[in-house]
Queue: 4 jobs
Job 1
Amino acid sequence: MLVFNQFGSKINYENGKCANCNRYNTSPAWCKTCDPQKTALGWTSGNKNIDDCIKELQLNATNYEDVIEWIPFNRLNNIQKVGEEFLALWLDGVRLIQYIKEPTQSRVPSSGIRLKILHESKNLSEILCKFKELIQSKDNSPKVYGLTQDTSTDEYILVFDFKRYEYCGKCANCNRYNTDFAWCQTCDPQKIAQGWTSGIKDVDECIKEFQLKTARYEDVIEWIPFNRLNNLQKIGEGGFGSVFSATWLDGKRIVSGKSTENVRSRTPSCKVALKTLPGSQKIF
């Protein structure tokens, strides 16, 4: 009997070599002969039917970035409701191929993702049927990453990506199309929420909560150091405090450029209005 490699036609030296079989990979950093089997090992949802469903999809995966996963609920953080869906940070992060000397399997740690509760969770067979149909459909947009289960309610939850648009350019971090002009909601909110502090934990947490669900670069809420304001002038009294005008030295956020070549920038030294919050010094 003749035995041959059914993936031989897909092997390409530019995809790098498989560390397991030492042959060229069938797609970037992915060996269809070896990697699906490794991906399907070492995890469980605690439910055999779910495990079998996800492992079937994993064993058919032809690309590293398309692997469907069971995502433990404790690997999700900062879950916030936005409309009918939820946003969260996936601590392990979405799969990413990095190109250094050769393609390498990697992740985008603490990736922003979307969650949708499957309210018909009691009918597991129906959920898994719809889940497989969604994964296998040609129009798999936005991309589905996998399933998780809320440990407090036992409801199953779909974990998936944001809508992405070619005309918004590509994210320099994950190399995928942005979700808005010069903005990737998977990567950018986490970067914006780092590297600053008001000096007050409650204020930081409040602002970061808004930052982590920001959908556009221009809409980012910030902590603005007082020394970045200039030319303060009182212009009136509001219902709850005094109103001032000032020059914000850093300026407001804007996106400039055309089509896929959008660039983030600021309008230097723009005028802003300020309103005091009487009694706030006693709160903090």
Job 2
Amino acid sequence: MTETLTEAQEKRLRENGYFLYQGCHFKPVRQFTETDGDFFDKTRRLRRDDELGMMEADYDGKQKHPYSYEGFYAASTDKKADIFFCLETMKEYTPCTHELQEYVMGQEKKHDRGRAV
């Protein structure tokens, strides 16, 4: 997020489906499918990512980039995608109303007294 790319590098990223939003490069991955589960299954995979810090308001000084749901989709190359890959953090994100949240695909393991079950 701190490196400046050349014009040629920016052009190559655009040609490969990336778009620039608030200084970060995103690429649409896909829409949600039935295999992602219902609303509750999807929301269990969402995490606030303080590393990216892309949120509408500054919560406890954690905002690094201003965010707008409408602005994000206006910049996006795919207006229907639900999951986006960020080149700078190498993580996937889902646009939410007030912030861009990390979308974690891996299933969390239940723990019993500190041991994975």
Job 3
Amino acid sequence: MGDVLAGFHAAWEFESDSVLIRYERGIRTPKLFQALGARRVPLAALEGVTLAAGRRGTVVLRAEPRPGADPLMDAADGQLKEGCDPYRLVLPAERGTLAEYYADELRAHLTGSGPADRHLVAPPAAPLQFKAYDGKASFDGTAVRFRWSWTGASSAKWKAGDRIFPVADLGGVEWRSPELFEGHLRLLPREPGAAAAQPPQPDQDPAAVVFGLGYGPVHESLPFAAAVLAAVRSASPPAPVTVPAPH
């Protein structure tokens, strides 16, 4: 294909095996898009394309990522607001016919469906960091570090001390949007037995940092969570293959 379709806040460049999405950096552009900058989405990471009428004389072209193909969407777990969905391209209604053409072209090139067995979209690149309400989180690609705040951290976290979590010891991440009640980022242990049956509240858990007004915003904490999740998945050993016994 090789063509470019420009909409509000983003432009999609169609290539033979991928879609390159470039996000604008204007003041009206969602901060998450600005933080992402650009993303190359392989066609193998997509399972569908939709085109629908939008608000106020617009149409919305949306690519549907396969479950497990994009660490950002895996970490978000359905919590992103519609306006911050990086797979939506909003265009003026007069470009509806053009958008329909590209939607058909994309569909014709899609071959994958169902959950992906690995991440196909590159994660945000480390190093990354953000300030939470009760501490500072940083990730260098190999380990996550939590440094507790003098003013925000609970006594339980102060007693535990600053923490370092090597990726090899992690089994996943739990991101709860700061725009929801009790927003936080929690690191999950790799060993099943290391996880408590009932994990403590995030403000009492040394494996979690708590969000708050101005702390852990989506555009900082979600790319962070996605980068950690991708590193954890990459470090995970492949699932064992069971070979049936000969009869």
Job 4
Amino acid sequence: MDIDKELFLWSVIADRRDLALLFWSRAKNKISAALIATLLYKKHARNEKDSSYKKSADEFENLAVQILDKFYQADSQTCTKAIIRRIPAWGNVTWLDLAIAADAKQFIARRAVQDLLNNIWFGYIDQRTSHKKIIFSTLMIWYSGFLLYNKELVQSIDKAVFLDEQTKKLNSTENQTSDNKWIVYKKRPGLYQYLINITRFMHTPYIKYLYNLYFHMIFLLLFSYLILCDFLPLYGFPIDICTSAKDSKDRKDNVADKNDNQPSINTSLIGNRYNASTSGSYESQRRKRPSGIEFVLVIWIFTLVCEEIRQLFATEAQSKRNAIIAYFKVFWNKLDVLAVVLFFIGFTLRFIPTVECFCAARVVLSIDLTVWFMRTLDLFAAVKRLGPKLVMIGEMVNDLRFFMIMLIVFILAFGVSSYSLIHGIQKLSWHLLRDIINHAYWRIFGDLNTLETFSTNYKANGYAAFILLVGYMAVVSILLVNLLIAMFSNTFTNLQVDTDRIWKFQQYTLVCEYLSRPSLPPPLIIFSHVWRLTLCIAAKYFKLNFFQEQYRRHLNRTDYKISLDEKKSIAIELAEDTFGDDVYYDFLKIGSKSLDETELDEERA
């Protein structure tokens, strides 16, 4: 039993901060211990609503960050590998696992962790390869075999000076070994190596991201074409039954104008031909079954459903219920479920032989297309210039939500009163609410056309409506709009420093998502699911060594954690202890200096 470790955990749980720092300085695996303390203190802060716990959590996170920075400066390669090293003393977790669990954004944002995430994101592809070549290789797969590849996932050009000294102290001359297939592979010349390069290229998370981006754009184009040009009724009612009466009238007027411009010779013959062509054109717009694009989209979204189910079952949780809760905590997962449900509702409604259901199907699918376009924003999270902006947009939406509550109050206060003064008694209907909102809302943006309805009304109701309009425009257009701008500016200022840190923290989720995704994007992803299902059935029921080995490799393909030999692990722990002692002594010096300054100020007072 590690006495210092147990006493350290007791001190943290009992909120004995000074003792926790003392036992932390005596314990091994200081970064792991500091991150665990950060996790526990943050949980205390959430439960107790006490800012002192948050302060203690920040202190331990800063200690872990300082050790990490010193380690990275001394030996970047070993430090990067140490981040994903399994630590038996703490249940085979890694520094990265603990940092994510503790929500240690400052730790994740450090260069050492970001280098590791970049290594995983680009896989074996040499990061010196230009993005143009990589994008070209995604379009021309054969070219990917000629790109530059690293021999290791964690690649560094720095020399391991400090760790070599620690290793020499242990008389260790053994090379690092790992049970992870990501780390080392032997170079094979010729055609076989070319095929291996293409395989590694296709399994790279960045390449998976690009293919998902390409196919998502194609999906949006097909869906947009369906809604705009190809969503035709299956039964005997007019094509434009769902459009407004004004649009239908305009179309008829256009047809009439074209007929008026035709020559008057052989009008009966031309009329018969026109009627025949019109009838033929009209009948050609009818279908007995949905178009091919609709079936393609159905298959496409079905493959997306399969992928979402795979992600749900792949969620690490103690029970299925917790897995479902964790799945729906992610905003984009909620959006995916909503988009899928809306699509199948709309696709089902179009088969019901009523005009109302066909129009409802068009409405539902149009809203669904909007959701799929919004889903594109998640793909922009990988772009360094756009990702932080999405973080700001998310925070500003919270400001807008509370602002809209105040705005609705003023809209209804002015809209109901002024509408009743101008239009008098109205018949109760759902359209009345829309008319009131139209009457009040668009005035915020300068639409004053309805002002003409009472501009010459010099009666009491006209003056009352005029006074209400003046007050409404002063409060909403001047006060509330500028208040919203001030709220956005304040949010932007507060987040400007932390936005990059938050985005880097979210990069971990993005990397893990595409690391676990199959190589093929939807709808081709169905082949990956069939292959995985085949391996699972063959390994479980036939129990052949070949299938069991292939299935084991398939499951471990996303495992980036490594296990080092004992001597190498001891060398890392010695280096960690050395840097930890330096950081702890610096921390004590700063603490004693601030204490002396406080006592001096009290004496002067």
